[in-house]
Write a structure and sequence with these properties.
Elements: H1 2-36, H2 48-51, H3 53-57, E1 66-67, H4 70-75, H5 78-85, H6 91-101, E2 103-104, H7 107-122, H8 124-134, H9 145-150, H10 160-177, H11 187-200, H12 202-225, H13 229-232, H14 240-245, H15 248-259, H16 266-278, H17 281-295, H18 297-320, E3 330-331, E4 336-342, E5 353-358, E6 361-366, H19 372-388, E7 396-399, E8 403-407, H20 420-434, E9 441-446, H21 454-468, E10 474-479, H22 483-488, E11 493-498, E12 500-503, E13 506-509, E14 514-515, H23 523-529, H24 534-548
Parallel strand pairs: 3-7, 6-10, 6-11, 8-9, 9-10
Antiparallel strand pairs: 1-2, 4-5, 4-7, 11-14, 12-13
Helix pairs in contact: 1-8, 6-18, 7-18, 8-18, 10-11, 12-15, 12-18, 15-17, 23-24
Length: about 550
């Protein structure tokens, strides 16, 4: 009696200490989340191969209003922008936020997302409590939940009937050996055959193991989040939770092996493994599980989006609460782009600029290193953030709801044997095709056709920029070709420029956008400042004066 009492006391003490330590860890984690609210992630490693998997594999993205292409992703440094805006607590939320940043949906969906963001922005306690739950899905295995949604279902083996027959034989042999011990001999070949099928199927089980384990964890997290009435009010339907609960037992059975980490549980694992082999339990449950996954694929995706939407909204709320100058964008149907004190989010101490284009496009000239390419990128990046996260790094932003295309970073494709000029021709052709869209488009181009000679560059560039500048579209183009300014001012383009000052043989840029065309040049002056030989400078100036005469 005393022995059992001693065990009971030990168990109660263990439970009290364990519960105390758990509460202590939660309190510490909660305090850290409050402290980091609004701040950048520290020491985060961004593996964009797995972060981008949901975006790359998603079958529904083609139904979106607009998908930001791989070309535009590179042109606008979207991966770096993502690193800056990402405050998610789970890997699922991280994948969903990346998908969201490259997928422009409807204005209705955007405003709905903003409502959820506002809820978390106003209720920090709710945000932190949700972050505590979401952080349970912050291990790298959570990246693989999307495979259960997007991967092609595994086909059942044609010999599944043999496995079922072996299972029936094993059961009958065990029953009959109680009456006829000779049947115990039959168990040896049956067990051997089952052993072969069991381990032959281990590769398939291992492939799904990470995703399956996370499905079980994600279901528990979703269940906790769905108990909050404020969150449930935002989502019309959370019936997917009950649908997935119907396969929870199979899910946890498949995930059992992944969760065995304690060496003291090895004996129980070994015993369970022997039983699974003898009766082909894992094999049969696994393919039954795959049937259930195929049947509930839509529910699993709803679960993924539910978690992702909440985490992305909390991340956006944290970003908005970080002391940065951020505004809420508005959208119009008048082809009017109006932004005040616009900034690039990645440039420290960025000089703000205003933009106002009313049924016009912009031709931007500027000296070398003056910031004209950075400026057109800044406009495009803020337009993307306006239409994906409903925020801008500016005092105010109003514009059409754009589809966004670009031609900025062009490189030779040596593998395809494509020259710089041909690569640019192919890129610009995509913009020309897109210009047929009745929806408003924002076309962002830097130094059009710089891969060819001056005369053809100017003539071809003028023709293309005139063609793109249709009534519903906006074109932002930066160029060194001053000649384009006289040609395009008649084609509904407003002229702007960046300029520099030279003081005490030093070059200074104010990075302020100015109306009109550039009237100064600095290329030869820069050569002079960097101590090029006087003969080169003299010769260059003589040739320049001949062309300007």
């Amino acid at each position: 009696m005393n022995y059992f009492l001693c065990i009971a006391v030990i168990f109660i003490l263990w439970f009290i200490v364990s519960n105390f330590n758990k509460k202590k860890r939660l309190k510490k984690r909660s305090a850290l989340l409050y402290k980091n609210w609004g701040n950048l992630k520290k020491d985060e490693y961004f593996n964009f191969f797995v972060i981008g998997k949901y975006f790359e594999n998603n079958a529904h993205k083609e139904k979106a209003y607009h998908i930001l292409s791989e070309k535009s992703k590179i042109d606008f440094d979207i991966d770096d922008i993502f690193k800056f805006v990402d405050r998610t607590s789970s890997k699922i939320g991280q994948q969903y936020l990346y998908f969201k940043l490259r997928t422009i949906g409807t204005l209705k969906d955007l405003l709905k997302f903003d409502e959820l963001t506002t809820l978390f922005q106003k209720d920090k306690d709710l945000s932190v409590s949700c972050q505590l739950e979401l952080s349970k899905l912050n291990n790298n295995d959570s990246y693989y939940l999307e495979e259960l949604i997007n991967d092609k279902p595994l086909e059942k083996p044609k010999y599944l009937w043999i496995v079922r027959g072996l299972t029936i034989t094993a059961i009958l042999s065990i029953i009959l050996l109680f009456f006829y011990p000779i049947f115990s001999l039959l168990l040896v070949p049956v067990f051997s055959a089952n052993l072969f099928f069991h381990y032959k199927n281990k590769y398939n089980v291992a492939y799904y193991l990470n995703g399956v384990t996370q499905l079980s964890s994600a279901l528990k997290v979703s269940n906790k989040l769905a108990k909050n009435p404020k969150i449930v009010a935002h989502f019309k339907d959370i019936s997917f939770i009950e649908s997935i609960k119907s396969i929870q037992l199979k899910t946890e059975f498949i995930a059992f092996e992944k969760n065995v980490t304690d060496e003291y549980l090895f004996f129980f694992w070994f015993l369970a493994e022997m039983i699974k082999i003898l009766f082909n339990v894992e094999y049969l449950v696994f393919y039954s599980f795959l049937d259930a996954i195929s049947k509930e694929r839509k529910s699993i995706e709803s679960l993924f989006v539910f978690i992702g939407e909440i985490d992305a909204a909390i991340s956006t709320a944290s970003l908005k609460s970080g002391g940065l100058k951020i505004c809420t964008p508005t959208f119009n149907n008048d082809n009017e782009l109006k932004v005040t004190n616009l900034k690039h989010p990645l440039i420290e101490n960025c000089i703000p600029n205003d933009v106002f284009l009313s049924q016009k496009s912009m031709l931007l000239t500027g000296s070398n290193m003056s910031g004209k390419t950075t400026f057109i990128r800044t406009v495009a990046i803020n337009s993307i953030l306006a239409q994906t996260l409903h925020l801008c790094f500016a005092d105010s932003y109003t514009a059409p709801f754009y589809k966004i295309y670009s031609s900025i970073r062009i490189t030779d494709d040596l593998l395809d044997n494509t020259s710089y000029y041909l690569q640019e021709v192919l890129t610009v052709k995509e913009l020309i095709d897109a210009s047929k869209d009745e929806n408003p488009c924002l076309f962002v181009l830097d130094e059009i056709f710089k891969g060819t000679n001056t005369i053809e560059r100017i003539s071809g560039g003028k023709a293309i920029l005139s063609y793109l500048n249709k009534k519903q579209h906006t074109v932002l183009v930066s160029t060194h070709d001053i000649e384009l300014t006289d040609l395009l001012v008649k084609e509904n383009y407003d002229l702007y420029h960046f300029s520099e000052q030279i003081e005490h043989n030093n070059l200074f840029f104010d990075h302020q956008l100015k109306a009109g065309k550039l009237k100064t040049r600095n290329a030869i002056k820069i050569l002079e400042l960097y101590k090029y030989p006087a003969a080169i400078i003299k010769n260059a100036k003589e040739i320049e004066s001949t062309y300007l005469a």
